[in-house]
Amino acid sequence: MKTAEIKITVALDDNNVPEKILWESTDAANKEALPVSSFMLSLWDPSYKNTLRIDLWTKDMPVDEMKRFFYETLQTMGDSFLRATGEKNIVEDLRDYCAHFADKMEITK
Q1: 71 vs 29, higher pLDDT
Q2: Which of 80, 81, 100, 108 has the least C-beta neighbours within 10 A?
Q3: How many Cβ atoms sit within 10 Å of the Cβ of residue 98?
Q4: Is 65 helix (H, G, I), strand (E, B) or coil?
């Protein structure tokens, strides 16, 4: 069986606020750790039937980038949900909400 490893390294300041986040994957073409400003990790625990989450962002991430990050995350969650379930109607509703979100947050495409 093939395995891959994803590694996330978070550098914290004296108050445990993320200053720098790096990610790397053994499957990536680029073997260097790459800097990112934010990540959301969701894991499903089948034993307890709930989601385990980590949401982190660096203290210098601009608010406009955070808005865009949430918008794109919502969009890709729709893509994933459609692939996982085939539920087209609800994904269309999510897309409508994403358009509303982008409008309210003044996110330009």
Answers
A1: 71
A2: 108
A3: 19
A4: helix
